[in-house]
Amino acid sequence: MSHGDTRTELPAPLGLLAELTHRCPLACPYCSNPLALDDRSDELDAATWGRVFREAAAMGVLQVHLSGGEPASRRDLVEIVALARDAGLYTNLITSAIGLDRSRLSRLKDAGLDHVQLSLQDVQAATADHIAGYSGAHRRKLSFAEAVHELGLALTVNAVIHRANIDHVSALVEVAAALGAGRVEIAHAQYYGWALRNRRALMPTRDQVMRAMQEMESIRPRYVGRLVIDMVVPDYYARRPKACVGGWGRRSLNVTPSGRVLPCHAAESIPGLQFWSVLERPLLEIWRRSPAFQAFRGTDWMAEPCRSCEMREIDFGGCRCQAMAITGDPRATDPACELSSHHELIQAIAEQDASGAVEEYVYRGRPTAIPIH
Amino acid sequence: MPDALPERPRLAPGVRLHFDKTREAWVLLGPERVIETEGPASDILSRCDGTRTVSQIVDELAVLYTAEASEIARDVEDMLAELAAKRMLV
Predict the structure, then answer these.
(1) How many CB atoms lie within 10 A of CB A363?
(2) Nearest residue of chain B to residue A94 (CA atoms)
(3) Does A230 contact B32 at a Cβ distance shorter than 8 Å?
(4) Does B57 lie at the interface with A, CB-CB under 8 angstroms?
């Protein structure tokens, strides 16, 4: 137990998502970054990240996920990785591969990097590059994966799934295995940030989702012991909500490029929450007392049907940001739950978006929409 | 699943054993995984270095815990097979 804190039974967090920058060469339409991106000039410097990592480790965090944007857009990434390892953290790099050649990757390994998570957009270069909004990206990802494998680093392939690639889920798993990945994430798009903005272009039909889920179950046995397959479920078509971030302010925290500390990466979409910054307070104090972390911690904030639900400490009422996005009330039951009075609404939205004729992505960081071929 | 057991098990790339000072326990850290170890697990895992065979690991554990190798072999093998299926061991 932690530090004789008898005031609460607040558990220590396990994971820290460190968004090193919002800059990214890719422009994926499902990006989880907020619509208002942090400016480069406001980014925390490496020394401040080092302090954040040491404070995180001291309060019980075991793993840091270096993310973005594209973390390799930071020139001081090698130094940042070394600081994370020096703090004793398991260090995971979440990358698009752009900006990481073999020699830089080798220096990251020497700095103590534990694991690399590489995004793939699709199985064919033409469609993958179109989704990423970046010509040549797919080819570079494949050669990056080769370098990861040759250097003996552990690799996870992450594929965000949506209407344009959902019919290729088993092919994506096959590609991940061929690239030498030990783990693959088939992550159905979660509709926050840019993904929410692009929902009408991204939402698959219910039939597509059902087929993809069945396909995944049927191929799973052949990869046991060879490739770990993790799924992020498509919750607009679900009956029960996900236990979003393992419960608000319970297991993980997220630090933005400029140092604001959030309970989850989309938390700024909830109006009225007050976020504290690592530039002003120690991380432990923020974790324990920041108004944003306290807002939906535990179960006291819940209304019915969550309040008396036997699942309330299992799914924690689902996702606050999704409740906000669909119902306008962040205290409402996540509409992905069939007990929500908005459950029919979210399903109707999904079906309507999936059947819509709108086929343009709004690429993040790009001025205009580009038509899909 | 004894056939899933590596001959000389070692922690998979990206997996390491770490002493968690906050929770005062050995944990196995891997990609998006934190596995708390209990009892003799950390003594078994610290011997999974790719040089020892499974039976050597069993013998060393038997000495360490003053038990008969034949009595603990099954438990050790089950634990290793389970972690191999999760690809924490190769």
Answers:
(1) 21
(2) B31
(3) yes
(4) no
- Please state, in angstroms and as integers, the Cα–Cα distance from residue A225 to each residue in A186, B33, B42, following that order: 18, 15, 21
Closest CA to A91 of A100, A82, A103: A82
Query: Which one, of A242, A133, A141, A254, lies nearest residue A198 by Cα?
Result: A133
Instruction: Evaluate whether B26 touches B18 at the Cβ level (below 8 Å).
Output: yes
Q: pLDDT 10s digit of each residue in chain A, 373 long?
A: 344 444 457 889 999 999 999 999 999 999 999 998 999 999 999 999 999 999 999 999 999 999 999 999 999 999 999 999 999 999 999 999 999 999 999 999 999 999 999 999 999 999 999 999 999 999 999 999 999 999 999 999 999 999 999 999 999 999 999 999 999 999 999 999 999 999 999 999 999 999 999 999 999 999 988 899 999 989 999 999 999 999 999 999 999 999 999 999 999 999 999 999 999 999 999 999 999 999 999 999 999 999 999 999 999 999 999 999 999 999 999 999 999 999 999 999 999 999 976 568 999 877 655 555 4
Residues from chain B contacting residue A246 (CB–CB below 8 Å): none
Q: Give A360→chain B minimum CA distance, Å.
A: 33
Could you tell me which chain A residue has the CA closest to the CA of B23?
A1
Could you give the CA distance from residue A367 to residue A119 in angstroms, rounded to a whole number? 24
Nearest residue, CB atoms, B87 vs list A88, A90, A228: A228
- Put simply, the answer to whether A156 touches B23 (Cβ < 8 Å) is no
Q: Is the pTM of this model over 0.90?
A: yes
Which residues in chain B are closer than 8 Å to A228, comparing Cβ atoms?
31, 86-87
Size of interface A-B (CB pairs under 8 A): 60
> Is A256 in CB contact (< 8 Å) with chain B?
no
| Beta strands in chain A, from DSSP E residues, in sequence order | 15-19, 63-67, 90-95, 115-120, 154-161, 183-188, 228-232, 252-255, 261-262, 360-361, 370-371
Residue A115 CA to residue A81 CA, distance in Å, equals 11
Give the residue among B85, B67, B55 at the shortest CA–CA distance from A220: B85
* Residues 222 through 251 of chain A touching chain B, CB cutoff 8 Å: 224-228, 230
Q: Does A63 touch chain B (CB under 8 A)?
A: yes
